[in-house]
Design goal:
2 copies of one chain form a homodimer. In chain A, 4% of the residues lie in helices and 46% in strands. Chain A has one helix spanning 10-14; strands at 8-9, 24-29, 32-42, 53-59, 62-66, 69-73, 77-81, 88-102. Strand 7 of chain A pairs antiparallel with strand 1 (8-9) of chain B.
Chain lengths: 123, 123
């Protein structure tokens, strides 16, 4: 029997996520991971000293604050936060995101705060 | 004056692309590139011996054929073709894609066919 090839459907994956700020891995490309996350409200300031981080908005309007400005990212839009740049995601209303970053990157960077989510959890 | 931070809007980028099968770079994350491409019809069989390749469908319905099956990928869906696996993208009707792969990867892999697009062209 032929192997089943199955696309990854973001809505299907999102429907299985019940908590905010808990990224879930849906795919890997080489040593990078694709993570789906639901967010609402304010996060903490942090950076990723070792890597850029990509945000693709699926639904809602995301704001990422920087110390010298901000970017607003809506559905069908993306933004790459350069490595080492402190940032703080903010969602006034619920936002669904696709994150892309190397395997092993923590959501809070190197801050080790209590907002740090369990890493490398697949859904 | 504060620097301008600007999201990358896929529709805006797509509106500037006039040719099929010509990927255009819209962003970089570390040594990876995000490419927007409009496709229609049949491509050639090829593989990428050195890397996985990610397809995210923005609009339309993409089929990727493998020698032992196929996958159908619609809007809001993604698929990662593993490195070294021969594949052939096909779009019965026009499809808009976001491709993610390391900088330097050719659209036809190592086949060097006349379908090879100019690489590393930004839009």
């Amino acid at each position: 029997m032929a192997p089943q090839y199955q696309a990854i459907n973001f809505s299907d994956k999102l429907s299985k996520i019940t908590q905010f700020w808990q990224p879930r891995v849906v795919a890997e490309m080489n040593d990078y991971q694709f993570k789906i996350v639901r967010i609402e409200g304010d996060f903490i300031w942090h950076d990723h000293p070792e890597t850029d981080e990509t945000f693709i908005v699926l639904t809602g309007q995301l704001r990422i604050d920087f110390h010298d400005g901000a970017v607003s990212i809506g559905p069908g839009e993306m933004f790459v936060v350069p490595k080492g740049v402190e940032h703080k995601p903010y969602a006034e209303h619920e936002v669904h995101l696709l994150l892309i970053e190397p395997r092993g990157v923590l959501n809070t960077g190197h801050t080790g705060a209590d907002r740090t989510a369990q890493n490398d959890v697949w859904i």
